[in-house]
Amino acid sequence: MLVALALAVWVTSGLWIDPNGRAITVNSSDQALFEWLLAFGGHALTHGENPLFTYLINVPDGVNLAVNTSITVYAVLFAPLTYLIGPPATFLVILTLNLAATAVAWYWLLSRHLLRSPLAAAIGGLFIGFSPGMVSHANAHLNWTAGWLVPLLVWRLFALRRPGRWLRDGAILGVLVAVAFSIAAEGLFFTALALGLFVAVWALHPANRAEARAVLPSFLRGLAVTAVVAGVLLSYPLWLHFAGPQRFHGTGFDAVIHSEDIAAYAAYPRRSLAGEAGFGTSLAPNPTEENSFFGLPLLVLAVGCFVLLWRGGDAHRRATLWALGIVAVVFTALSFGPVAKIDGHRTDLPMPFDLLGHLPVVNAALPARFALVVTPVIGLLLAYAVDQLRRRPLSRAAAVAWTVGFAVALVPLFPTPLLTSEREPIPRFITSGAWRDHVSPGGVLTPAPLALDVYPDGQRWQAYALANRQGEFAIPSGFFLGPGGPDDRGRIGPVPRPFGALLDQAARTGLPPIVTEGTREEVRADLEHWRIETVVLADEVHGAKWPVDEEAIRRTLVLLFGEPERVEDVWVWHVRR
């Protein structure tokens, strides 16, 4: 536990320097989103509002948080901490605990239920908890780093085999499924697919058929109870997800872009010793999606562990290895997406996901993330191999060879701290509460540029106001997934409108647009649509992907609305209808 916590603090150390003033360099937009979710969740809890739908962003349509990564359980459980130390620091605490808890939970499952050797369990747990995929998603993904849920789901699923306790065990698993859905729905979906495939292959193996038939009645009764309990607890979130307002089908991300490169499995991740030494690659669509990146030595070691265990195992052990191997092969193939990519080059070779990617729910998954399922399989192989090697006498040469093999495979993957950088501070206009003199209670205030994934300031400001109990103001636009994408799929943020496009152009290019009377008419229509009362421009605007030209934005707003009022450290334009 101490080693896992130390590694988790090491990986996130750049943020611990100043939790409120620093952000994850490669994904500050997602960090701002999760900070907002924590602040909004606590606010909804204390004010009796709906935690799964809000009109505080994306005015006037609102946002369906059930189809977004709402992390509702975290927002509720950590609400006191959010009010005490603020959303950015609470975000950091959860991220750090996620990494440590994932390693500890896998260690607990391995050491208490599967293995004899604590060392073997520690190696397996630490590898899974700090694997390249986990460290990559530590770039602000509170949902995917909650990997501690997976070993708990595995534990409770196989507890359903016990006769006479199916009602109790099924109810416990149902509650755990509801919790997992409310923290990481996509991860729960992947876990369910992997466990379903594993159980089917394991039960159909000749060595296990008799045992499978014996426990099947209790297992199915327990699953039925699980479905009922989880269905009751998740009835409203599931209705919102599939039939509620502002829902969408599919995803706003391109499945070809967000698929795993075949060469990525043998490559090294950027945030590792090998990556720091110059062996990292850019085969992932972005630094948060290095879902495999095991390195060639680890792949060779995993195969060697499989062969060792197969040769030394009985029929039951071989049935387990067979099931693990099938899971690894199937999810590896699915991670390649609709068509194969090799070393950055797209081919015309169709992949299995091309057949399954149009199915409901599957079409909302990013195929590259299927590779995350391979990580626990490799971790289990490593742990089982160490357990077997420690229980059997080895020659000195064999012991040295295995030790060197593990070192060569794992040392290059040792994680390095996440890249962080200073983040533009929240203006005194917000922190002092001065904004309340410039917008009616619950009225609409917008930062310039409008809040989006690339301009997350609006949701950061709102999160601060909510967490510090200053009151509510709504904002147009925002960073969320909603309807309006091509082919009725989802998209990031709302469908663009002229006012937002003008400010975005100025922010990116540094050139104010040509403003005509027609332009002003379009802007007035947008102000009416969003019910905007006040436009605010800070001296320093955070751009998540590129630097922002604040002076060009100010000149654009002057062309549209005239000279602003200076309040605290911002420029304010009053544009009430």
Automatic annotation (TrEMBL):
<keyword id="KW-0812">Transmembrane</keyword>
<feature type="transmembrane region" description="Helical">
    <location>
        <begin position="219"/>
        <end position="239"/>
    </location>
</feature>
<feature type="transmembrane region" description="Helical">
    <location>
        <begin position="321"/>
        <end position="340"/>
    </location>
</feature>
<feature type="transmembrane region" description="Helical">
    <location>
        <begin position="91"/>
        <end position="110"/>
    </location>
</feature>
<dbReference type="GO" id="GO:0016740">
    <property type="term" value="F:transferase activity"/>
</dbReference>
<feature type="transmembrane region" description="Helical">
    <location>
        <begin position="117"/>
        <end position="135"/>
    </location>
</feature>
<protein>
    <submittedName>
        <fullName>Glycosyl transferase</fullName>
    </submittedName>
</protein>
<feature type="transmembrane region" description="Helical">
    <location>
        <begin position="65"/>
        <end position="85"/>
    </location>
</feature>
<keyword id="KW-1133">Transmembrane helix</keyword>
<keyword id="KW-0472">Membrane</keyword>
<dbReference type="InterPro" id="IPR046278">
    <property type="entry name" value="DUF6311"/>
</dbReference>
<feature type="transmembrane region" description="Helical">
    <location>
        <begin position="397"/>
        <end position="415"/>
    </location>
</feature>
<feature type="domain" description="DUF6311">
    <location>
        <begin position="2"/>
        <end position="396"/>
    </location>
</feature>
<dbReference type="Pfam" id="PF19830">
    <property type="entry name" value="DUF6311"/>
</dbReference>
<feature type="transmembrane region" description="Helical">
    <location>
        <begin position="360"/>
        <end position="385"/>
    </location>
</feature>
<keyword id="KW-0808">Transferase</keyword>
<feature type="transmembrane region" description="Helical">
    <location>
        <begin position="189"/>
        <end position="207"/>
    </location>
</feature>
<feature type="transmembrane region" description="Helical">
    <location>
        <begin position="292"/>
        <end position="309"/>
    </location>
</feature>
